[in-house]
């Protein structure tokens, strides 16, 4: 019986064969950098869900939603075939990713705007209440001071004098 070669001696030829098969497969199959239409729509839905959450946080999402509408229009135009399919998908996905990158900033701005809106609302209510309290406390004093100033030159004439005494209702 002849001596058989150990298993590891076939390793270089086996690895070289696998490498050749892998490289030919990579070169023969065109590399697609674009995602499929379904993946683009899935990404659009995920970004839309994040955008809804940003709106709940108080963010102004008008520009971002317009961008998503533009991306959706591009995806829908794939059926018409006006431009190359890959180019349209690349544009749509780049717009969607741009909107996705804007969302954290939008959420932060929305939270700040909500905080300041609540702060100013509380400040306005507190100011109105304090003005009401001040009016309650100082209106009588101001009213009587104005009353006295307006009538300071008036002369009071005493009438109905009986027996040298004034008709005084005070006891004493």
Please describe what this structure looks like.
By secondary structure, this protein is mainly alpha-helical. It has a domain at about 20-110. Helices cover about 70% and strands about 0% of the residues. The protein contains four helices and no strands. The N and C termini lie far apart (about 150 Å).
Task: List strands and helices in order, with pairings.
Layout: H1 11-28, H2 37-56, H3 62-76, H4 85-150
Helix pairs in contact: 2-3, 2-4, 3-4
What proportion of the residues is helical, as a percent range?
Answer: 55-70%
Mean pLDDT: 80
Question: For the CA atoms, what is the radius of gyration?
Answer: 43 Å
Instruction: Note the run of SSEs as H and E.
Output: HHHH
**SS-derived structural category:** mainly alpha
Distance between the termini: 151 Å
In short:
The chain has a domain at 19-112. 69% of the residues lie in helices and 0% in strands.
């Amino acid at each position: 019986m002849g001596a058989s070669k150990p298993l590891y001696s076939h390793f270089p030829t086996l690895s070289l064969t696998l490498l050749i098969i892998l490289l030919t497969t990579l070169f023969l199959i065109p590399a697609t950098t674009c995602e499929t239409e379904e993946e683009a729509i899935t990404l659009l839905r995920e970004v839309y869900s994040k955008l809804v959450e940003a709106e709940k946080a108080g963010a102004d999402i008008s520009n971002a939603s317009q961008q998503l509408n533009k991306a959706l229009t591009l995806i829908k135009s794939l059926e018409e075939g006006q431009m190359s399919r890959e180019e349209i998908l690349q544009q749509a996905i780049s717009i969607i990713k741009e909107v996705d990158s804007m969302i954290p900033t939008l959420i932060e701005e929305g939270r700040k705007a909500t905080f300041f809106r609540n702060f100013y609302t509380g400040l306005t209510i507190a100011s109105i209440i304090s003005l009401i309290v001040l009016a309650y406390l100082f209106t009588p004093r101001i009213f009587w001071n104005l009353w006295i100033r307006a009538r300071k030159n008036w002369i009071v004439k005493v009438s109905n004098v009986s027996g040298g005494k004034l008709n005084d209702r005070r006891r004493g």
